Amino acid sequence: MLSLAVILPTLLLVSQSAAVPVVEVSPAGKHTIIERGTCRIAPACNDEGLKLITKYTNFYDRPKQIGRDWTCGYEHKCKNSRCSDMSKKWPISKHKGQDWLKDDLKYSQQCLASYITTECKLNENQYAALLSWTHDQGCDTVRRSRLIKELNQSKPSRNGRDPKDSHDRDGKGRDNDHDDHGHEDDDSKKSEPNRGKGQEDSHRDKSSNDSKDFGKGPQDSSKGSEQQSDSRGNNAHDSDGEKHNDNNGRHGNSNTKRGDDDDKKKIDALCAKYLPTYTSKKKYSRERRNAEVKLCESRSSKIVLPCK
């Protein structure tokens, strides 16, 4: 029997090594180093991505030998010539082949999610386009790709502005009432003539009240003027507070939306620049890259990366 002096260090080593994966085996049987990313469980591919992948992936309803490998379904690599590890009844349906494809995509999903370390937001269509590219080219190619390097070097836009731009902030780090061109906001422009008009009206009302109160006692006239000034002050304070709250909510939502749009433009540009370079002489490959670029540029409100 083994002693505790031998068993305990072994258990400790296994528990420590389980926290950081070193080597994973891909469906094709190749060993690939998987880096630890922010996602413990990578996002799944959406329906649009599955349609793209199945369109440009060969389907075999029974085992077929391609080179040295045996494949079935949507190019799933079998462990033996009969593909007995997948099914015992042939032919299979495309619906069943899609279920196998979803299982095969889990490896590519984990690869892609672990390689992307940027804080830029990726929507589900951008992620699906990159996932199709990863599944076709392989994890090693994607990990060394220029697209992933440039994507990780790009910084997300904060509140719709580039974090490097500081011309819109004063020395104390507060936002100025100026837009990108150095002009004042429309709200501040509109408030100035309103304030001037209010001052003229108050001056006119004061003079008319003075004329009406002529002949009254000093206490009555002072009470009337105080009540009028208090009511005007309260109304002005309430209106200013409502405008301030409305402006804060409106600017906050627009800035967040502008930041998401800026992130999308950056990723769209990277897809259009680098995805077409991973093509062969076959028309099949060129069409797939163009379809991935088109899917990457399509809009979606669902954000999948970075993982929450």
UniProtKB/TrEMBL annotation:
Keyword entries, A-Z: Antimicrobial, Bacteriolytic enzyme, Signal
Lineage: Eukaryota, Fungi, Dikarya, Ascomycota, Pezizomycotina
Species in which this protein is naturally found: Septoria linicola
Region described as Disordered: spans on this chain: 150-264
Annotated protein name in UniProt: Lysozyme-like domain superfamily protein
Signal sequence extent: 1-19
Composition bias type Basic and acidic residues, residue spans: 159-215, 235-249
Pfam families documented for this protein: Phage_lysozyme
Gene3D superfamilies attached to this UniProt entry: 1.10.530.40
Biased segments, Polar residues type: 219-234
One annotated GO molecular function: lysozyme activity
